[in-house]
User: What shape does this take?
Amino acid sequence: MRAVRLYSPGDPLRVEEVPLPVPVGTEVRVRVAGCGVCHTDLHIADGTQPRVALPVTLGHEVAGWIDELGQDTETPLAVGDAVVVHGGWGCGVCRDCLAGAEQRCERSVAPGFQLDGGYADAMLVPHPRHLVPIGSLDPVRAAPLADAGITPHRAVRRAEPWLLPGARVLLIGCGALGQFALQYLRLIPDAGDELFVGVRELSPTRLERATELGADIGMLDGDPEMTREALAGPADVVLDFVGTDATLAHAAEVAAAGGLIVLVGEAGGSLGFGFERPAVESWLTTVAWGSLDDLQAVVRLAERRRLRWEVEAIPLAEAASAHAQLRAGEIDGRVVLVPSE
Assistant: This one.
């Protein structure tokens, strides 16, 4: 089978013929329908992502069909079922795993990081509990739900205690993840329609898309004073999907006393923390990917046609081109690599 492999940071991606993996024990082989291309893949390729074992087949946003089951696998799923892969593969027995947060497990491994992922015709998943059936969803379109869908879902869920009717919310960045977050905000029971949501972006195209998805106001960059004026006050919640020093500093300047800043973007930024900055009694938090529960919830929303997202399918062999497009900021939705027959 074909796989797109990375051998060393900064090296070109290699499209290679490798043996078809054979599942043993509780493993499941998934025939890949599509694998999303994520900014984290660029960090791995550049050598800036921690805990990566090279060489590796990239790709952690994967959907496809069950192809073969290991001899010890017990599952109601069957060969041929369409599934999306939850990529946080924990030990299964620690406190985080038992609490449903396997992606946070200290001993966790993940496809495209420590184990071979979905830039391939097929991949192994260590246990069927990491698979979520997707019913009638197109698995190529479903692939981005495994990260671009669940990470903002976890961020919005973390922010729900602050998301009361009339709350002011700022989204910094409205690419693939931010667009999902905007939709989740509007779906919050009893409050979604009454939130005032502003989006800060550098791309006019993304601001137009944000308006279509329910943003109340869009801002092309701007200083903190302009942001507070646009929101008619400080932000009760800031969701930073960029994560640079500059965006975090902006978040700290516009967050309300007692408000919440959620760092989602992995651009390497940091924020100094003191008694008066961010505002007094404000909260800072991060999110770690998303849990299996998040993925199941997102799939349910997608099956009910409550979510909109854009997918551009590109042949697997053109993975390097997909990386170049993502680096250049030419992608507003999600590129999905598709193995050709």
Q: What stands out?
A: DSSP finds ten helices and 16 strands in the chain. The chain has a mean pLDDT of 96. Residues 292-303 form the longest helix (12 residues). The radius of gyration is 20 Å.
